[in-house]
Design a protein that fits this description.
The structure is a single chain. The chain is mostly helical. Helix content is 86%, strand content 0%. It is built from 6 helices and no strands. Helix 1 runs antiparallel to helix 2, helix 1 runs antiparallel to helix 6 and helix 4 runs antiparallel to helix 5.
């Protein structure tokens, strides 16, 4: 009975990971990896194989680390200064709590646009940098969704077989 409870918990965490991956500032991939570890522990470290657990953990770590720097990297690639990029990350995070997920994207984009326009006096360059932030945020959500879905599929195969 206890084993079944932990399998249920693992499945809940895996599904929550997929759902959380499309909600900004919810650690979807960490929820998914937690589901893998709960199942692995509940199986006595027999399923999934250690190799699968290691690969999933490394992939999740890469997604998490990239997520911390996505706004900064995108803004820099879009031509923004390091200061504008860092400010966008802070403002986007704060806006989540006031305006929700859309506030994260809009707050970061507006911050980059305003700071870059103030710095360069070039609306086109400022818009390019702000657009890079928006595209990176959307792209990051898509990558996290795909990773969490892949983890879910792998674990469903492990559980069913």
């Amino acid at each position: 009975m206890t084993g079944l409870l932990f399998v249920g918990l693992a499945v809940v965490l895996l599904v929550a990971g997929v759902i959380g991956s499309v909600i900004p500032n919810v650690p979807g991939v960490l929820l998914s990896v937690s589901g893998v570890f709960v199942y692995w522990w509940a199986s006595g470290y027999a399923e999934p194989s250690t190799a699968v657990v290691v690969v999933v953990t490394i992939l999740a770590a890469l997604v998490v680390v990239a997520g911390f720097f996505q706004d900064v990297i995108a803004a820099r690639l879009g031509g923004a200064s390091g200061w504008s990029a860092a400010a966008a990350g802070v403002v986007g995070f704060a806006c989540f709590f006031v305006f929700g997920p859309l506030g994260t994207i809009l707050g970061a984009a507006v911050t980059v646009f305003v700071l870059e326009y103030r710095r360069q006096r070039d609306a086109t360059a400022s818009a390019r940098a702000a657009t890079a932030v928006v595209l990176a945020t959307i792209g990051s959500a898509i990558v996290e969704l795909l990773v969490t879905l892949m983890i879910l599929v792998v674990m469903v195969v492990v559980i069913v077989l």
